[in-house]
Amino acid sequence: MARPAGQGEQTKKLIAAKAKALFEQKGYSAATMDEICSITGSSKGSIYYHFKNKAALFIYILELSTQEWVDKWVEIEATVHTSTEKLYKLANHFATDFQNPLLKASEEFAGSESADPEVKTRLLELSRLHYPLFQQLLKEGIEHGEFRDVPLDEFTFIVLGLLAGLGISYFDYEYEQMEELYRKAIDLLLQGVQVK
């Protein structure tokens, strides 16, 4: 008997939501398929029907998490009007993501699965999902005369690199300190690119 349309995707999302909580609690490596079966109430066969392996399940969870981040940014962006304000909000949104409980499991996963080219490719694709958001914001800022007319691709990589690089403070700073550091980084960046 065929499953109703959409039921398969709904089941995948339910499995992923429950498995995500386990990965957040135990980390990627320590979470076993037996525990995933137990916490989701699914058989291994059911999980393997939807996901090739634990790595595929984790990537799916990362995809959903990344989409949530993007959707939240769209909501935030709608509340501000200038590109300068948006840049501050985007930096703050970026910093806020360091409070995501999935972060530690993601770091562990990225290191443990580096030999699998398919996994590396998908992780790289996920890391690039932010690129168009940054590029659109900066393009609007240039077009509206808020930012100097600089090569957009370079400008995008510089801003992405700045915000991603500041992530290293995650290991030394509390969230409030990180938030302030990101704000100061945008202050300094704007000194170089803002049209006076």
Automatic annotation (TrEMBL):
Species, as recorded: Paenibacillus eucommiae
The keyword DNA-binding appears for this protein: yes
Keyword DNA-binding annotated: yes
Stated name of the protein: AcrR family transcriptional regulator
InterPro entries in alphabetical order: DNA-bd_HTH_TetR-type_CS, Homeodomain-like_sf, HTH-type_Tx_Regulator, HTH_TetR, Tet_transcr_reg_TetR-rel_C_sf, Tscrpt_reg_QacR_C
Keyword entries, A-Z: DNA-binding
Residue ranges occupied by any HTH tetR-type domain in the UniProt entry: 9-69
DNA-binding region per UniProt: 32-51
